[in-house]
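Researcher: Here's my situation. A collaborator sent me these components and asked whether they could plausibly form a single complex. I don't have experimental data yet, so a predicted model of the whole assembly would be a useful starting point for our discussion.
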Amino acid sequence: MKLQDFRVGLRILAQDPVYSLVSILGLGVGLGVCLLLLGYARHCWQYNAHVPDVDNVYIVKQRNNLELGTPWYDQAPLLLLAAARTAPGVTNASGYVGWFPLTVEVNDQLRNLKSLTVLPGFAEMMGLRAIQGDLNEALSRPDSIAITQDTAIRLFGTSDVLGRTLLLRLSAVDENRSTARIAAILRNPPANTTIPFEILNGPNLSLVPPSMRDQLLGESDWLGYLLLRVRPGTSLAAIAEVLQHAVDEAPSAQKVPPEMKERLGDRKIMDIKLSRLRDAYFDRDVATNFTSLTVDRGNSTLVAGLVAVATFILTLAAVNYVNLATIRVIRRQREIAMRKVLGASNGRLALQFVVESLLVSMLASATGFILACLALPVFSELMNRDLGGMLSLQNIGTALGLGLLLGLITAIHPAWIALGVRPSLMLVGRPDAESLCSKYLRRALSALQVAVAMGLASFTLAIFWQARFAIDGSPGFDPSSLLVFDLPVGVSAQDEKPRGLMAALSQQTELTGTAISNDAVGRSKQPWSTEIKREGREAVDMDVKSMSANFFEEYGIKPVAGRLFDSQIDRENDPVPVVINAIAARQLGFASPEQAVGQSLLFRSMASGAPALITKRIVGIAPEIRFYSLREVPGAIAYELWSNSGTLTVRATGSIHNAERAVQSVWPKYFPNSVLEMKPAKEIYAANYADDVRLARLLALSTALAMIIAAFGMYVLAADAVQRRTKEIALRKLFGTRRRDIGKLVAKEIGAVILLSAVVALPLAAVAIARYLSPYTERTPLAYWALAFALLVSLTTAAFAGARQGWIAMALKPAVALRT
Amino acid sequence: MLKLVNATKQFAGGEVITTALNNVNLEINTGEYVAVTGPSGCGKSTLLSILGMLDMPDGGEYWFDRQNVAGWSEVKLSELRRGRIGFIFQSFNLIEELAVDENVELALEYTNVPPKARRERVAQMLDKLGVAHRAKHRPSQLSGGQQQRVAIARALVNKPAVLLADEPTGNLDTAHGEEVMRILREINDEGTTIVMVTHSPAHAARASRTVGLLDGAIAEPAEAATAT
């Protein structure tokens, strides 16, 4: 590798700056996108990697088999900690709970903070060290806490807050508040952790009620997040066996009625398993766990898909560059021949082209990295993740490494062409031009570019249309005027303050009444199911939704048969009336929904502490209400009157903004210590598809880039075709060919590539679309139209890209062309 | 020094086979100045390519400096060619991305001559050919005559044993053409063997011997000239 080669490379780039800019920018953009997507994938795959020896840290998961269809939860009975400490190979057993979300009062402002109550051993498990102060003291004293640097800056404007105090509240209605001293300041946990926190406190914090402290530190069957560190090579099965035995012998297990044990058969009351902390981010078991703290969760298939997209984009960019570089090499055949004449060996010649390719790829790397940095804030927002840590030395190294690899790979084809140049023909004026094989390869590469762009476009459109179909689809009522908010933790609607709140809200002219339910439509924070049956028939397990008598009125829902709950007829919390949906009626054996009206059902209830059968009477059949996303098969639902829940819904009489202001004005009078978190019902429902919308946006950007790169490719293809066929075009004109026939000639060149691309891309895109749509129970009718639309967009892009060259070909003067 | 024995060269273009050289026997001694004449398409450039080891005969033998190089690999030919054969072309074939001195130095780049010695040789050669004052210019900034002198400098900087010139005055006006012919004469006087392809009878007469080529075979120069 000689300096001369770099000098020649630079001069060649400078000779045709537009061409060079297209090469570098095309490759740079591809690299930039690739860096962002790969950086994001790395961010996802590195969740919890900051925990020391994370591959040997496990979460204890449990599944309660007493309720049919219960998923695995990442929380387990706290009594298992004592058992775990005796299990072979366990070197540390600790955990944390989020039972005590703390609200902080600073400068008369209330702020909810992510607080964790951690058990002994947690700091060591997580490798936490105080930057200032004493972490041990912060977690053991009743008047101390630890906070993170960022939290300190947010609350006090500085991170130098050791020894300062905070006024903490535990519950919004409980007047219990206490001052705690900041005894330790911690480094911020990384963005990619499933155990984020802003404040840590120990179980001895004075705000923690004594009864709960006993549960935390004793052998309680209350649930918490349990973490175990094990020695490498330890048998996980042995540990799981110890824990399973502990749960089987627990006092709560002994209280399960015999008939329920009999129903379980061979299954345990509670299954226990260990799951790596490293895998927590992608754990689909717990992604929708309503009891989980709200932490980042990811989809490994989606991330793998994004890596594939990154690879596609980079391949496109590389293919584009190879095409451009190849054309350049063809134009330099005379120079290459001369070098061979002067004695350049094949190796030396190939090295020169490698150097030139490396020059472009390293410039492109730098360009790509800068573009990635500039786009990072927007990308972070799009992915709904804090990706600031992506600007690391490691990622800079990756960018350089990728550029180096790309430079070497993209040099292969141009170098191969250079090595094939025959000096004897070249130098006597008979250009070797390009071999047929190379020409077809370039066309195939151009077709690949367009195929990738077309495939991406189809897939993106299908996702986008499906997401819009799902979001805009009616959930069974009109959500546009509804606002939903939750009462503070530990407060239910029948308590004094909420009743006062609801009475005050009913006085607001911007609002109609207030409905109560155990959850918002479209959210699954409080699912509950039970067995329901008709006399003499098999029981059916179905979801039960609890609500106030005015729920259906406020939501504007009308019955399919019979009537729905009516505030004028029904008493709040009346245990007798029940409403079911048509699916429930069918599953219960009714020939039609109408036949179910007036019939009795037996509900298994645990309200009295022991299972009991309660008789309810069906007053009506409700229409399908989309409590879940379109990915779930609609199931049997029963609605009962029970208003001791915590989710309130109000309907706006006019503007929803005025309604929001009305609620905001009333709330502080009843819950001055609690932050109101209110959302339009439509937004809650749309949150089920937030990932799809995010994916569609990301793919749309990728598609746009792919189209731009493909358009470059088409432009180059058209330019090359015109240049190659200049004499032919001139001769055709001499023989009287019309302009439009010349235009058709150019169009045919590009058209052939588009056709080949469509044959490759569209079937594959159709398969990808089918796979994406398969989990949905309802699908947009437009999905497969995305293929036609993508083809149209590709044709239009190619037409624009080739238009200029087509015009040049049509305007070519035969005399001039034949002379040169 | 150079000897072709029954050399044959054919080119296949689809179903058509063209015989460019047909049983050519030619011997060129060290220090000779040979002109090759003939009409267009008679095989002159093919002959030069074979003599310069840019191509090999399909049949027969080619002896270069007492070695039969017919059938040698491209790698071996390239090594043998390096530094021993200089080329001058009608269209100069200078590399536009390199300055004049860099173009000349290119011929030394593939040899073992150390960088300092290279620069000295280049400077001497440019001076000898009267283009030293244009050392840092690009080829497109030079006149045709100057470009050909640079090409000659490049061909000679390695002190080759043989100089092959393919229509060296073809793209030059009369005055510059005369200049180039004078330089070639001087080079030959210094002992370099020259084989020159030319259409010009006047320029062919400057050589010590003229070889005629007609339809791929050696012919009398007069016969070849009549056919032109």
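Model: Some features of this prediction you could bring to your collaborator: Chain B touches chain A through 30 residues (CB under 8 Å). Helices of chain B lie at 44-51, 74-81, 100-109, 115-128, 144-156, 174-189, 201-204, 221-227.
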